[in-house]
């Protein structure tokens, strides 16, 4: 008898973002040890995601841009033993990141896996908090989308390209978001745009495209806040299931066993 045709299994993707590691293992943000919180998030991922095909790390891997901090991040995430991709955020040093990633595929910008193409864009601006996609990055995106063929596309960057309803975060988002959004509209194979930076979850559907952001693996920012405000929610990660037909399932999980104790009298974020 002929065997039934089963659809291909979806790709299992995990996103970690905004770890803000220091060279000093004791380094903290608002009294929270960022290596400790990352360790708890990684343990949560390992408990909940028995299969991972790709790990995406979307910026601010470090707080101080140091070799030691990147080495620590690489060592900690190596526990997954899966293909991993990094992109820089506003706290990162892209040159140092590339140095630590030398000899690996960690900073590869375009990755084809299954029926999907993953595009990792560098939106960091040297010495600034806001983001901008330079001409070279837009050209990279144009080429990646034009040559994707029948692959579905997931576009990743660090800075938010849409208004998330936090007044203080808006000026430090992606300054030329229109250039990105225009390309997304022009290419029907773009299924989702994924970022970090805002230290909170975001999930919005716009014209059939999913716009997604993910909690930090350390401190969280309070949603819908006018001024800088942190939340005592637990750190977390995002999982994604990328289906061969272009469908996407996703959710956010948090390190439920991690106790958040913030010190508001410590040095600021």
Automatic annotation (TrEMBL):
The protein's Enzyme Commission number: 3.1.4.53
Statement: the UniProt record of this protein carries the keyword Calcium: no
Keywords: Hydrolase, Iron, Metal-binding
Protein name per the record: 3',5'-cyclic adenosine monophosphate phosphodiesterase CpdA
One Pfam family it belongs to: Metallophos
Transmembrane residue ranges: none
MF terms (GO), sorted A to Z: 3',5'-cyclic-AMP phosphodiesterase activity; metal ion binding
InterPro entries noted in UniProt: Calcineurin-like_PHP (IPR004843), CNP_phosphodiesterase-III (IPR050884), GpdQ/CpdA-like (IPR026575), Metallo-depent_PP-like (IPR029052)
Keyword Iron belongs to the record: yes
Domain Calcineurin-like phosphoesterase: 12-200
Species this protein is from: Pseudomonas reidholzensis
Membership in a protein family: Belongs to the cyclic nucleotide phosphodiesterase class-III family.
Gene expressing this chain: cpdA
């Amino acid at each position: 008898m002929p065997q039934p045709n089963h659809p291909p299994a979806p790709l299992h993707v995990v996103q970690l973002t905004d770890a803000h590691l220091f060279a000093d293992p004791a380094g903290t943000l608002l009294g929270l040890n960022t290596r400790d919180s990352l360790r708890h998030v990684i343990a949560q991922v390992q408990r909940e995601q028995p299969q991972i095909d790709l790990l995406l790390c979307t910026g601010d891997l470090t707080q101080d841009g140091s070799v030691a901090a990147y080495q620590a991040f690489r060592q900690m995430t190596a526990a997954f033993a899966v293909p991993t991709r990094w992109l820089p955020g506003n706290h990162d040093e892209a040159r140092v990141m590339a140095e630590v990633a030398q000899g690996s595929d960690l900073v590869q910008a375009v990755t084809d896996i299954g029926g999907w193409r993953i595009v990792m864009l560098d939106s960091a601006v040297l010495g600034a908090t806001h983001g901008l996609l330079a001409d070279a990055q837009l050209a990279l995106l144009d080429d990646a989308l034009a040559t994707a063929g029948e692959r579905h596309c997931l576009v990743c960057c660090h800075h938010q390209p849409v208004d998330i309803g936090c007044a203080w975060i808006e000026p430090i988002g992606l300054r030329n978001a229109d250039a990105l959004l225009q390309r997304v509209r022009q290419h029907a194979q773009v299924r989702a745009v994924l970022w970090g930076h805002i230290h909170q979850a975001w999930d919005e559907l716009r014209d059939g495209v999913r716009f997604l952001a993910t909690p930090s693996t350390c401190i969280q920012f309070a949603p819908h806040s006018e001024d800088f405000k942190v939340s005592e929610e637990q750190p977390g990660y995002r999982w994604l299931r990328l289906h061969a037909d272009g469908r996407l399932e996703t959710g956010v999980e948090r390190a439920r066993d991690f106790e958040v104790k913030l010190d508001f009298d410590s040095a600021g974020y």
